[in-house]
Design brief:
Protein name: 2-C-methyl-D-erythritol 4-phosphate cytidylyltransferase
Bound molecules: cytidine-5'-triphosphate, the ligand C[C@](O)(CO)[C@H](O)COP(=O)(O)O
Structural class: alpha/beta
Pathway: Isoprenoid biosynthesis; isopentenyl diphosphate biosynthesis via DXP pathway; isopentenyl diphosphate from 1-deoxy-D-xylulose 5-phosphate: step 2/6
CATH topology: Spore Coat Polysaccharide Biosynthesis Protein SpsA, Chain A
CATH superfamily: Spore Coat Polysaccharide Biosynthesis Protein SpsA, Chain A
Radius of gyration: 20 Å
Shape: globular
Strand content: 15-25%
EC number: 2.7.7.60
Order of helices and strands: EEEHEHEHEHEEEEHHEH
Catalytic activity: 2-C-methyl-D-erythritol 4-phosphate + CTP + H(+) = 4-CDP-2-C-methyl-D-erythritol + diphosphate
GO molecular function: 2-C-methyl-D-erythritol 4-phosphate cytidylyltransferase activity
Number of helices: 7
CATH architecture: Alpha-Beta Complex
CATH class: Alpha Beta
């Protein structure tokens, strides 16, 4: 598997999440959300470095609360920007040219699995650019925001919901970010910039369980998934063998 750097943007304002605690820093089944996302990467032999992007206002608090988690890892803190793509750009500037691939993974997608990461990194190594996504399952409606009235139904054939990781050749991503000023539409994911360069981005089937924590309900869902996974692991363990009369197995 190709070596790759990982950018974990965690510098957003969590406005849809609400509350005092930003969503990457809340505890999810005993561990911070951002840590669950980052450790799935930094435990891998094929990861060169993990760049954790944190808002300047959160930096000191992050170091005080979570700095010990970064010890003995290949993680580095990077300053975030006001937009997600600015946060990614700040980290991308730190990735050496010698690193062939860069994965960008939302800090608030803590349920990503090694199998999903393997699949999307393998595809990016073959095609230059790949991302996880799931086909839209619900009917999509266009809604007028001031009246909440439906103004149309969006054809969903061929429509997929983007996830992360999104993985790219480092040179393509650097070129795309250098050219991002030419885009006049909101930039909500990194693949959009690669598409604008004219490179094909390959979609790799993700999982509905690799969802982004956006609202409080998502946190509750993520907690339930983790508890269900833990219960399944306990069930899959061989039953402890009883000792015989002589205390022998
Ligand atoms: N300026 C930003 C905006 C977002 N992010 C990160 O990008 C990921 C996906 O963004 P999103 O879910 O939109 O997070 P927020 O921007 O915090 O959410 P909201 O739009 O509700 O404020 C999150 O891990 C978020 O921390 C970031 O690093 N820098
Ligand atoms: C990158 C992303 O998670 C792909 O679905 C999404 O675009 C992030 O958007 P957000 O508004 O920054 O959450």
């Amino acid at each position: 598997m190709s070596q790759f750097a990982v950018i974990i943007p965690a510098a957003g304002q969590s406005s849809r999440f609400g509350g005092a605690e930003k969503k990457p820093f809340v505890t999810l089944d005993g561990r911070p959300v951002w840590l669950r996302s980052a450790e799935t990467f930094w435990s891998r032999d094929d990861v060169s470095k993990v760049y954790i992007v944190v808002a300047p206002a959160d930096r000191d608090d992050f170091r005080a609360r979570f700095g010990h988690h970064l010890a003995f890892t290949n993680a580095e803190l990077v300053e975030g920007g006001s937009e997600r793509f600015e946060s990614v750009a700040n980290a991308l500037a730190r990735v050496p040219e010698s690193v062939p691939l860069v994965a960008v993974h939302d800090a608030v997608r803590p349920l990503v699995t090694p199998a999903l990461i393997n699949a999307v990194v393998q595809s990016a190594a073959e095609h230059g650019a790949a991302m996880l996504a799931v086909p839209v399952a619900d009917t999509l409606k266009q809604v007028e925001p001031t009246t909440n009235r439906i103004t149309g139904t969006v054809p969903r054939a061929g429509v997929w919901q983007a996830q992360t990781p999104q993985v790219f050749r480092r040179d393509w991503l650097a070129e795309a970010y250098a050219a991002r000023g030419r885009l006049t539409v909101p930039i909500t994911d990194d693949a959009q910039l690669i598409e604008a360069l004219g490179h094909a981005v390959v979609v790799v089937p993700g999982s509905p369980l690799n969802f982004k924590i956006t609202t409080r309900d998502d946190l509750e869902l993520a907690d339930a998934v983790l508890k269900a996974r833990a219960a399944r692991r306990r069930e899959d363990q061989p039953a402890a063998r009883p000792f015989d009369d002589e205390g022998q197995w």
